[in-house]
Amino acid sequence: MRNRLLVFLLIIPCLLTAQVRSDSMFERLLHSHTSPLLKHILQYPDSFRYQLIYTEINRDADNTPHFKNYYFNVDSNQYFNPASTVKLPIALLSLEKLHELQVQGLTPTTAMLTDSAFGGQVTVHKDSSAENGLPSIAHNIKEVFLISDNDAYNRLYEFVGQQRVNERMWQMGYKNTRIVRRFMPLTEEENRHSPQITFVQDGKMIYQQPAMASTLNFDYSKQIFIGQGYLDKDDHLVPRPMDFTRHNNFPLEDLQQVLQSVIFPESVPEAQRFHLTKDDYKFLYQYMSEYPSESRFPKYDTAEYFNSFTKFFFFKAGKQNIPPYIRVFNKTGWSYGFLTDATYIVDFKNKVEFMLTGTIYVNSDGILNDNKYEYEEVGYPFFKEVGEIIYQYELGRKRTYTPDLNGFRMNYSQ
After folding, report:
1. Which of 61, 88, 337, 361 is a plausible cystine mate for 331, CB 3.0–4.6 Å?
2. Cβ pair 65, 355 in contact under 8 A
3. Above 60 in pLDDT, residue 175?
4. Beta-bridge partner residues of 367
């Protein structure tokens, strides 16, 4: 009996830690090139809650890419707030829904007029940042990728609808992904409702989507509490952990796979591909990699929205200029002390490509919602250094076949 008990006790810790994925090669690579800051971060995985996925890409003789993921401290059971990374699937689902509606004349550039009839909804019939002064699916997607605009995301979320968003993601195999919130202070019930949306071309209504409400039941049985306290809506300190149980959830492996399915759709099973056209992909690649300074509509103040504004790996810290021969196709998110980035990096000059997906939590005082996070001091330098380590490794890595990357060259002057 005593021996059985000993075996049982030995099994329990294994079960509890079985979800954590780490590859020795990736771990050795990071530890062999660490600065004192990165070394400190890597020593405290519980405090910084970091997770990293490095995706090595090798082309064959036909230029077909093949992928190998290396994991470091990746744990699907460890929650991180995905923040704006959920805008990636929402943008894809918006384009997908347009096609599936099969309405003649309805395109991503058709004027999209949003009404309001339920709590928390906002009427949007104009957009001064658009060339024609009118909102559209395409313009909202541009803003989502160029500067991670929240209002643009909210309009796309309403168009797709909470129920369709989640049913479609689950259908594609992302069973642990949950997108249930817009980025504005709304109740759970308000987030379930989408307003009436009318699409208009030359003053004529092409399609009108009626108001709708999600009837999905979500599994909130796993409670998630983070921190030591938080500020409420009145800026009063609540001395207990913040409850994230009913927040959005987008595990890192799901995020990495969604990005891969967009950049390399034929590399994932057909069931995991979004129903998009070649023009959709070209459009997405354009704005996933374009810099704010290159955008005419919207036109941005580049002092605030500098070129590396949403490019964490390599560049965010110090607001550096990105070399002209490198392009970064990605989606970032930052909120509540969490920083997250899913990135495909292309170096056209040196014929290098790879993917990096990561998240970190930088909130040393344990108080959430106070906007006192170590983004600049710890978070951005973490991403920058990891990005540089992998980039230098990739520069020296031998490849059997040199990749043809011309498919990712975009004309940013148009």
Report:
1. 88
2. no
3. yes
4. 229
**Each residue's pLDDT tens digit, 73-110:** 999 999 999 999 999 999 999 999 999 999 999 999 99
- pTM recorded for the entire structure: 0.94
Task: For residues 251-260, give the mean pLDDT.
Answer: 98
Fold of the domain built from segment(s) 19-408? Beta-lactamase (3.40.710)
- What are 213's two structure tokens? 């409400």
- Cα–Cα distance measured from residue 151 to residue 142, given in angstroms and rounded to the nearest whole number: 12
Domain borders along the chain are 19-408
What is the C-alpha to C-alpha distance for residues 238 and 376, in angstroms, rounded to an integer?
Answer: 26
- Among candidate residues 308, 307, 390, 323, the one with its CA nearest the CA of residue 353: 390
Mean pLDDT value across the chain: 94
